[in-house]
Amino acid sequence: xxxxxxxxxFKDKDxxxxxxxxxxxxxxxxxxxxxxxSAAYAACALAFRDRLILEWNRTQQRQTFADSKRVYYLSxxxxxxxxxxxxxxxxxxxxxxxxxxxxxxxxxxxVIQQEHDAALGNGGLGRLAACFxxxxxxxxxxxxxxxxxxxxxxxxxxxxxxxxxxxxxxxxDFNPWEFPRHDVTVDIQFxxxxxxxxxxxxxTVCRWEGGETVKAVAYDVPIPGYDTxxxxxxxxxxxxxxxxxxxFQKFNSGDYESSVADQQRxxxxxxxxxxxxxxxxxxxxxxKQQYFWVAASLYDIVRRFKKSKRPWxxxxxxxxxxxxxxxxxxxIVELQRILVDLEGxxxxxxxxxxxxxxxYTNHTVLPEALEKWSVPLIQHLLPRHLxxxxxxxxxxxxxxxxxxxxxxxxxxxxxxxxxxxxxxVRMAHLAIVGSHKVNGVAELHSDLIKTTIFxxxxxxxxxxxxxxxxxxxxxxxxxxxxNPRLSELIASKTGGKGFLTDLTLLSKLELYVDDKxxxxxxxEIKYANKVRLAKHIKATTGVxxxxxxxxxxxxxxxxxYKRQQMNIFGAIHxxxxxxxxxxxxxxxxxxxxxxxxGKAAPGYWMAKQIIHLINNxxxxxxxxxxxxxxxxxxxxxxxxxxxxxxxIPASDIxxxxxxxxxxxxxxxxxxxxxxxGLIIGTCDGANIEITxxxxxxxxxxxxxxxxxxxxxxHAHLYGQHTIDAxxxxxxxxxxxxxxGNPQDFAGMVSAVRDHGDYxxxxxxxxxxxxxHALVDEAYRDQEQWLTKCxxxxxxxxxxxSDRCINEYAEGIWNIEPLVVDRDK
Length: 824
Ligand code: 26V
Fold this sequence. Notes:
Layout: H1 13-27, H2 37-66, E1 70-74, E2 78-81, H3 84-90, H4 94-103, H5 108-113, E3 118-120, H6 124-138, E4 143-148, E5 156-160, E6 163-167, E7 179-190, E8 193-198, E9 204-209, E10 212-224, E11 231-241, H7 248-252, H8 256-268, H9 284-307, H10 315-318, E12 319-324, H11 330-342, H12 347-357, E13 358-361, E14 372-374, H13 375-381, H14 383-403, H15 408-414, E15 417-418, E16 424-426, H16 427-433, E17 437-440, H17 443-451, H18 455-461, E18 466-468, H19 475-481, H20 484-494, H21 516-541, E19 550-555, H22 564-579, H23 583-587, E20 592-597, H24 605-621, E21 631-636, H25 641-647, E22 653-656, H26 668-674, E23 678-681, H27 687-694, E24 700-701, H28 709-717, H29 725-735, H30 746-753, H31 761-780, H32 782-794, H33 801-813
Parallel strand pairs: 1-4, 1-12, 4-11, 12-13, 13-17, 17-18, 19-20, 19-22, 20-21, 22-23, 23-24
Antiparallel strand pairs: 2-3, 5-6, 7-10, 8-9, 10-11, 14-16, 15-16
The structure holds ligand 26V.
The site of ligand 26V has 20 residues, from helix 6.
């Protein structure tokens, strides 16, 4: 009887319009005469949401019924961006919506733009998690994401007088994509103490008692797959005061303030995303976030497993948990606690289950980014977990001692506890010991972790525990959604939209690389994308740029290792070179626009200095009459996912120029090439595999290799290094005050010139400039350039996150897709 009442998805344009109108008039309680773009967005989103919900429920029922193994992706960050466009495309109804909205008097692009980005992440790591969710659903894998429902996402960046200013990102005013589940809650305990006792059989049992309790409330977000009914779930936890905690005594006795303060303290846990700053180190609230999220997620996962009434040893046959970096590592300890303390399993049996359940992905080799938590802090917040960590470490070190007797140095190196003052828990070591697989995110990076930071663990556990899964990106968002015209052109040559689910079909494009008409359309699309970006630049910065200039883009978080400073030094060098030319010589030069974007962590002083210099260079160069269109330097404010969708398709060349060995993978490099842009880059991260796939004629590689870095750094420290003359010339100009007060940039200059140049800017500067000269030369030959672009796109099939997810599914999770037909 229920079934006949189920609402069905809109079958046609009229059906869609009816739903939009209904939502405007009833859900939003607005008259049609008073329906602006934001109301149109809301109603359109609600209409599509209704459509998703049905498939979402069916998917969950089907997965439960099939009793298939699920993967749970634990990530503190999900950088989702906008949802409406994605939902329309994935369910295949964007054309219908476009026509329907047009009849109602709206342009679909304007409606889409109304949506606030879901910016629950910092950068690559969070966006990777979002691409993975898209692939998991599109490939019909039973999978859930677990994260935190931050009230504030990554801050909004404003540029005021050339400086970054951070503004809070309150994004929940209207969010139709989440469903509060007030009935799905978990009480999470903090602080307190451990009580030891002996049971009837003489076994020691531990109970964690006392302390305070905070409530976790689930908010669910539907994740629609592309061209499949599978709609997976992303569950985000929000913190609330536990019911008993809101103190009515205090409230009634007039101590209203302190009663509300308790409430607010609980809600603080999920209030803000940490903007991954060096200064976050050791913050108690961050550790609270981690445990809150991990404990709620595990409770949920275990509750689901227990319904099946299976024996515990089958847990890893039904559950795979992937740790996105070390942030969720406490999950390993929490599962061991649940199994031993609450379910009464023997330690070894429990530990076996734990290790077979977890996989750990490492995303950086930078030592300052490896997580450590102080023992006293964990002792205070999670006393029972600290005991378990010590026991895990004891058993681990005992086995190492048996394997490699009398090797004190080795024990100290691999210990989960660092014997410092105070003692620290090394989260990566705990994650390795508690997982059955550890992976890096690109070949070079996976090799580096095996030979440097984790090399002792390879000795101990053997090489098979360590593997590589090269990152990927979803072609749905990063081609079809971001670059619809290019997607359509590709579809017309590769036999339809199949390439969106099998990206290797792009290879068919190579057959058309000489097709005149095809090349012309391709070039037109790139130009139109550049025109759109030029308009955005004009509107947001006031700078006029010519769409026929070479667009040179570097957009990513600002960090010294990513070397935006080298890029801006290069732009200054170009400026000085142009200034030194006669007007006749200048005439012959290639016009260029240097485009930057990216946020600096609020406490990262050097990164902020880099932003300031970029803006100041722009202010000088962009207003220099001698230079005109030959060089423009712009910094785009508030780089985020939806800006990336506009910027990336408009790039001619993009910069991926990290010091070799420092960028684990990079994923925007893949996005740029997939959109018909070339790249200039170092031999680092996924650049290496991109080169292997597209051919070295199609990429501009430069600079020293990872294997040379140690020796070069050494040379700097022992003064066996002279600074490049071109770079010295740039420093002179900065110090003359051409770009504002030189004091403002003294840190940047001296880091390279006087303090060891840790990121080797001076070592790579010369080859960087030379390679940019090659870029200019190559761009002059527009036909050849176009050939490079088309050929590169044709060879990018490997970098789909679908390939990547299939590798995880097969090599780490041991899960299978649950295939369904559309109408079942
Ligand atoms: C974090 C921090 C925080 C403290 C200061 C220094 C520092 C340096 C790096 C990081 C990154 C943490 C992990 C991360 O986000 N890794 C990124 O993961 C992407 C997805 O795998 C990958 O493409 C990027 O190369 C990698 O940086």
